[in-house]
Amino acid sequence: DARAAAEHILAMARLGCAVVDIGGQSTRPGHTAISHEEEWRRIRPTLELLRAMRGEGIPLPLISVDTYYPEVAQAALEHGADIINDVTGFAHPDMRRIAAEYGAGCVIMHSGDITGCGDPVSAVREFFARRVEQCVNDGIDRRCICLDCGIGFGKTREQEVELLRRMGECRVEGLPLLAAASRKRVIAHMMGIDLPPHERDEATHATHLTAVKAGADMVRVHDAEGACASLKIE
Fold first, then answer.
1. What b/e readout covers 128-148, taking b as 16+ CB neighbours within 10 angstroms?
2. Could you give the C-alpha distances from 10 to 3, 15, 220, 224, 234, in angstroms and in order?
3. Engineering a disulfide at 62: which of 70, 82, 103, 159 sits with its beta carbon 3.0 to 4.6 angstroms away?
4. Residue 233: its pLDDT value, please?
């Protein structure tokens, strides 16, 4: 429901959220992919409504679209999205071309299996260095790039904990870092209790505070109210 989504986004803006991430499908490992046509069909009504609200002067957070499809990325940017959040780390040359053409913000997530690597921080940092260079060479403004270590993607739980605790060491070229562990399995692992995802919010906030103290600049969450409160206290 586009209207309900827009109201939720307005509520998040009042809480102080700077960015809202919109997605048309799950991107967690093992998910069943849908076509780019279906993904766009799902998110288009919300983006059209948000564009109309902006046209009326209603203040909104920056709008991020979570997609790895170039077709969806381009359509979303044409409909007023500000940022593309790509779980494949802008591996597709068309994603880099489109982002450069529209001057879009880019969330580059570490993708790839590093479960056999000794030091996950070094592996992630080396990936970021290569991909940032590639993106800049393809015309993306370095100032538009944010880095996501890819918690929950191609890593052991122990590696994920290490990345969260050493988040700042993953930084390359002074670029901002995003911590995105909300409700993920690593939270249950750290708790030692396999709670369902919706019961992991309090532990998520504690985990993200650890990441922020370690150097993260932003957090991506489900429970925006709790996250904003915990970060203000910190």
1. beebbebbbeeebeeebbbbb
2. 11, 9, 17, 12, 24
3. 82
4. 79
| Beta bridge partner(s), residue 179 | 219
- CA dist., res. 191 & res. 232, Å (int): 23
Beta strands in 4-161 (DSSP E): 19-23, 62-66, 83-86, 105-109, 145-148
- Residue 26's Cα: distance from chain center in Å? 12
Task: List domains and CATH numbers for the chain.
Answer: 1-66 (no CATH), 87-233 (3.20.20.20)
Nearest by Cα to 196 from 181, 206, 183, 182: 183
- pLDDT computed for residue 32 by the predictor: 84
Asked if 40 and 24 count as a contact pair (C-beta separation under 8 A), the reply is yes
DSSP string, 135-157: HHHTT--GGGEEEE--TTSS--H
Q: Which two tokens stand for residue 212?
A: 């922020």
Q: Which helix (H) or strand (E) holds 120?
A: helix 120-137
Q: How far is CA 219 from CA 206, 211, 216, 230, in A?
A: 12, 9, 7, 11
